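Re: [ENG-882] Designed sequences occasionally contain unexpected residues at chain ends

Forwarding the minimal case from QA. Structure tokens:
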């Protein structure tokens, strides 16, 4: 099918100069972590290479430590401590250059944002102050003039190594509260009385010096970018937008490109539950007028109309993206080729961020190939051709089933998808109706739109089949994607056994609430022993309907796992604002006629939370009956032409939507393979 680019988007494909180099278009993949970094260089290179292949004119590294005096262990970021790191970086730059894109490296000295748990060298910063990373009983020491000179030298040397490694753009990083240069800039950390403290000109002195050093060190062979916080969002005790305006008056012409960020990382990468596309345009708008140098900014942009508007209105010169480039590495190419309907839009769930916080390779709800480009050979757009003219049945149209059907269809198999309800999406369709989760619907919309175009995939609604009927239809491979159901018995993370019921009261599961059931009475307890989003979403839904809601969790905070998606503080804050009563560090013990008896996780002491009803958000059980029936009929598979049956996604092992999508993709990729490749691919020793 021939498609043509919409002329309204031509502006997005204009080349832009960045000092001595030229970006071929305005799509700029800004630095983002990935949980692979220095540990998995081959995987990292493959991931970045696919971004370049997908049309991003600039592809940047994650933050990259310039020296061992500042290490962010246990987090896995980049390292360019000395020449021994250059070969790993060459892998990355070659992969990016192979597709005509510019490679950028974000150099960082993390200072008081690093605990140096690997090198054990005392951290340092502008002033004596506890480190701002994970809580650890250590303080950063105040840097003296010699330390400042050392830092400048380390940054220069890292710049020279970066150019040798093939980078076209070298970043000077002063953002996200993660960089010594920002710590000097910010009055909250800088209480020096020498020429590096006090007035803005002094606090900005080190940033100016490092920018000048970097420009000299690249020697005209690379552009220099400055990534800087435009407002720390903490008022006058921090660096403010007014100071940013003043700063641009001082050094606005120094770097070759500005990359503006807002607040700390959780402020810059807010989940869709709390912010939509372009959420902080107000803080970026107008800054471009204060410099002649091009400007990059982010806002989880997935709409080409928004992108074109930002360029036309002079807000930005480059469309910066981390998450949209993760969800769809081919986003620029799809716009360029007029394939707007094929864009896989980021849903703003921040599962990608959890890879950094768990120090594991990046993953993405929308893009199952993210982080798997090298070790599994997955590509976001291309599947291996089918191995034979086999027919595949997918049972269930939730996230795993949709991905399985779409990806198997892309391989060229004949696929039948049967769904027992009238619509696709399974749990995602239901969960997207919970407060704040509407964008999650994109998981369904993208896949449903692709399936619509596939002549080799047929979808049947309000359909179900028994195991015997399935065998009669002579499919060769079957994916059972029947999902999972929330438990009513209270078994969850903190409880291996069921919650006691001394007296039957109204207990509901999230499935029942999402299907429209409501608790009896006005006082409802939500017991969250799942610790991701569902417990807080239930509480938010019910309090919004006028019920008196108490949320109880065995953890010391609400939705504790959402620390890894950087939204825990927002979730707890919203529940408090809405009037939800929060009881932490208590686990449910039994239900009585008076309410829920809970036990302190520290002392074991009991108390009763009076309520009329309870919603248990604890764990789920796979809907595995059909898969087990099919396994029981294994002796009949041969005569029915059936080769393989797999339970996929939640019906195998309930987990996140991302895990379900990934498993659906794995099913489609595995069809025709004999076994998992052994040994499992990983970078061992040499690259
Ligand atoms: Fe977007 Fe979620 Fe993918 Fe991250 S994991 S890129 S937030 S869809």
């Amino acid at each position: 099918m021939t498609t043509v680019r919409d002329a309204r988007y031509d502006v997005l494909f204009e080349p832009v100069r960045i000092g001595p180099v030229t970006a071929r278009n305005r799509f700029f993949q800004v630095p983002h972590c990935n949980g692979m970094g220095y540990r998995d260089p081959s995987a990292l290179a493959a991931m970045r290479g696919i971004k370049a292949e997908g049309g991003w004119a600039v592809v940047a590294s994650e933050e990259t430590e310039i020296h061992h005096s500042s290490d962010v262990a246990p987090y896995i970021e980049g390292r360019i401590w000395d020449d021994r790191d250059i070969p790993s970086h060459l892998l990355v730059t070659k992969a990016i250059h192979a597709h005509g894109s510019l490679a950028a490296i974000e150099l960082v000295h993390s200072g008081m944002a690093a605990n140096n748990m690997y090198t054990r060298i005392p951290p340092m910063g502008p002033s004596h102050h506890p480190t701002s990373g994970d809580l650890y009983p250590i303080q950063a020491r105040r840097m003296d003039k010699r330390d400042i000179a050392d830092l400048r030298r380390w940054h220069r040397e890292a710049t020279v190594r970066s150019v040798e490694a093939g980078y076209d753009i070298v970043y000077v990083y002063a953002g996200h509260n993660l960089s010594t240069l920002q710590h000097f800039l910010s009055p909250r950390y800088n209480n020096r009385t020498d020429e590096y403290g006090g007035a803005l000109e002094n606090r900005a002195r080190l940033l100016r010096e490092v920018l000048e050093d970097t420009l000299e060190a690249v020697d005209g062979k690379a552009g220099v970018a400055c990534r800087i916080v435009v407002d720390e969002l903490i008022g006058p005790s921090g660096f403010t937008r007014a100071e940013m305006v003043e700063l641009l008056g001082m050094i606005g012409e120094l770097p070759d490109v500005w990359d503006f960020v807002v607040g700390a990382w959780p402020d810059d990468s807010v989940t869709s539950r709390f912010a939509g596309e372009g959420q902080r345009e107000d803080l970026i708008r107008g800054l471009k007028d204060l410099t002649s140098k091009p400007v990059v900014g982010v806002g989880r942009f997935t709409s080409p109309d928004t992108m074109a508007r930002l360029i036309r209105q002079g807000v930005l010169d480059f469309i910066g993206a981390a998450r949209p480039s993760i969800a769809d590495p081919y986003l620029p190419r799809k716009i360029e080729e007029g394939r707007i309907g094929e864009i896989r839009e980021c849903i703003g769930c921040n599962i990608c961020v959890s890879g950094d916080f768990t120090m594991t390779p990046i993953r993405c709800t929308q893009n199952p190939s993210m982080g798997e480009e090298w070790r599994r050979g997955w590509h976001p757009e291309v599947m291996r051709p089918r191995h034979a003219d086999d027919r595949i049945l997918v049972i269930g149209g939730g996230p795993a089933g949709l991905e399985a059907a779409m990806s198997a269809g892309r391989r060229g198999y004949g696929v039948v998808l049967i769904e027992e309800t009238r619509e696709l999406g399974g749990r995602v369709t239901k969960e997207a109706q919970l407060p704040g989760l509407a964008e999650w619907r994109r998981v369904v919309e993208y896949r449903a739109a692709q399936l619509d175009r596939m002549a080799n995939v047929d979808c049947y609604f309000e359909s179900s089949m028994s195991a015997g009927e399935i065998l009669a239809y002579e499919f060769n491979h079957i994916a059972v994607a029947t999902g999972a159901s929330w438990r009513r018995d209270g078994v969850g993370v903190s409880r291996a056994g069921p919650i006691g019921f001394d007296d039957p009261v109204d207990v509901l599961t999230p499935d029942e609430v999402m299907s429209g059931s409501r608790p009896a009475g006005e006082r409802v307890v939500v017991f969250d022993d799942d610790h991701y989003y569902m417990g807080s979403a239930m509480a938010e839904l019910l309090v919004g309907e006028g019920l008196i809601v108490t949320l109880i969790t065995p953890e010391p905070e609400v939705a504790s796992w959402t620390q890894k998606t950087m939204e825990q503080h927002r979730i707890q804050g919203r529940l408090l604002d809405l009037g939800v009563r929060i009881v932490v560090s208590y686990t449910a013990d039994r239900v009585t006629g008076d309410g829920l008896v809970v036990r302190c996780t520290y002392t074991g002491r009991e108390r009763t939370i009076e309520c009329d009803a309870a919603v248990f958000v604890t764990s789920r059980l796979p809907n595995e009956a059909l898969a087990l029936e099919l396994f029981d009929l294994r002796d009949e598979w041969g005569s029915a032409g059936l080769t393989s049956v797999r339970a996929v996604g939640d019906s195998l092992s309930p987990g996140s939507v991302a895990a379900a999508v990934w498993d659906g993709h794995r099913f489609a990729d595995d069809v025709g393979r004999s076994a998992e490749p052994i040994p499992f691919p990983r970078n061992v020793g040499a690259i």
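QA comment: On inspection the terminal residues look reasonable. The pocket of iron/sulfur cluster is lined by residues 323, 326-327, 346-352, 364-366 (CB under 6 Å). Proposing we downgrade this to a documentation issue.
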